[in-house]
């Protein structure tokens, strides 16, 4: 019995001694915090309705609470975004938000909480892209402007490189700009290439009629050409790294995320006035699967996919009294998971919810 007690005493003393040495020598491992970007919500830019005199507005969907706040820009700054706010981008480095307000001839700049920081005068701004400390802005006067994200000032304006310029993307120091249509409503078939540093035109890429949107996915660019709204249908094409162009699918609006192209194709037969709408996910290898929204969507006007969560957002107009889309009424957004459509939320936004951009913040996560 005494022998057993002695061994136990020796073991306890050893444990105490070892623990004390570890503390004194600072051997306790220190784990540095690990951070990653996490999506916290989505901004919905509502275009309003020019012909009805309805100003545009900004809404915010909060992931944590599954709620939407409307008229956010007005609430923060006591003034309206004005007519046809058409495009919105976020500078990931600063969290600052840039909003192109076409009818107001300006680009609004706010902080991440939508407090106004400045605005920049740009004639009829349309679409924007962020890259290399700049925001590039297309205009209906056929020029591209470059705004410094550090000074909030225009540092360069290009020569006229087209007519009514729409979508823009940056790839390897080159701007690709959609030259959509002309003032006489004839349609162009080129994407203009420009040097991002100098804004000098360097060439053209021939695409389908009326290119309006362009987005980068890896080394490739995907272009939506809207057609002539009559006998030339809207379609999506790929511009590869060598500027070769190939057909992908028919589509009227799209988004890209995680190696996939998410497409809505809404086609109206004008002899019967019946509209057929399909939702499809394409991979870069050419395979496709149907997307089935959890509820019927009346008149979709945008699709956006959160690349961090895989959640799909589809915005829509509501139907009016005569069975047609009501472009002067508040619209809505349906958010759901591609692989779990039963989990969905419907958010009621403003008039013309045609642009959705995701807000991300750096958050601490548990290290492996």
Task: Describe the overall structure.
By secondary structure, the chain is mainly beta. 8% of the residues lie in helices and 54% in strands. Strands 24, 25, 26, 27 and 28 form a 5-stranded antiparallel beta sheet that branches. A 4-stranded antiparallel beta sheet has the order 3-2-1-29. The protein has a 4-stranded antiparallel beta sheet with strand order 4-5-6-7. Strand 13 and strand 14 form a beta hairpin. The longest helix is centred in the N-terminal third of the chain and has 24 residues, at 2-25. It is globular.
Assembly form of the protein: single chain
Mean pLDDT comes to 91
How many distinct beta strands?
A: 29
Number of helices: 2
For the record, give the distance between the C-alpha atoms at the N and C termini, rounded to a whole number: 46 Å
Gross morphology: globular
Radius of gyration: 26 Å
DSSP helix fraction:
under 10%
Low-confidence stretches: 1-23
* Main sheet summary: 5 strands, antiparallel
Q: Structural class from helices and strands?
A: mainly beta
**Beta-strand residue fraction:** over 45%
